[in-house]
Amino acid sequence: MEIKGKELEILISESEIKEKVKELAKQISKDFKGKELLVVGILKGSFIFLADLVRELEGKVFIDFMQVSSYHTEMESFGEVIFVKELTTDIKDKNVLIVDDIIDTGKTLKALVEALSLREPKILKTCVLLDKKERREVDYDADYTGFIIPDKFVVGYGLDWAEEGRTLKDIYYVKV
Ligand code: IMP
Ligand code: MG
Fold first, then answer.
1. Is the separation of the CB atoms in 65 and 99 below 8 Å?
2. Can you tell me the distance from the alpha carbon of 174 to that of 117, in angstroms, rounded to the nearest whole number?
3. What is the DSSP letter of 37?
4. Nearest CA residue ID for atom 9, ligand 1
5. What residues line ligand 1, using a CB cutoff of 6 Å?
6. Atom 3 of ligand 1: nearest residue by CA position
7. Which of these, 43, 65, 87, 127, is most buried using a 10 Å CB contact count?
8. CA–CA distance, 37 with 95 (Å, rounded to integer)
9. How far is the CA of 173 from the centre of ligand 1 (A)?
10. Which residues pair with 41 in a beta bridge?
């Protein structure tokens, strides 16, 4: 498979993702047992992960979305985080789980957590499917992490390269 003339190599298969999503959902359901949970998906990359994750969660789950822009150009992501779509829900006193596809430099999630904390949720936790740990530029780790992956650009399962590759069922890295 190719995107923009670059070859894709499989990194994580659909079945490995499925298993991991179940594992994450089990842990989250346990930690939030008996509590209502508001899951906040960060558009667009998280939408497939979120759809699979929330269907594995037990208990009462509500969904909302935010979209942030971090001035992505091609394969680079920079620090400036701008909210381009706001929540439609008031999160004060709610149990909130932010769900994103991947944590890379950590700037996006850190900025989101700082901004949403000011709205005084009861609990605010974060969940990512992928973590490029070695790329971290700020001191932040998600509360729930699926896979730690090497410093390679990945696509599929919601993740894109300039809007391409989101609908692939497995996760691939772009060969350079
Ligand atoms: P951070 O602020 O550097 O942690 O960037 C997080 C965001 O960058 C994610 O929500 C993704 O949208 C994007 N991103 C980082 N690495 C990749 C990648 O390998 N593939 C696709 N998107 C990525
Ligand atoms: Mg994203």
1. no
2. 35
3. E
4. 102
5. 45, 70, 77, 100-108, 153-154, 159
6. 105
7. 127
8. 5
9. 13
10. 65, 99
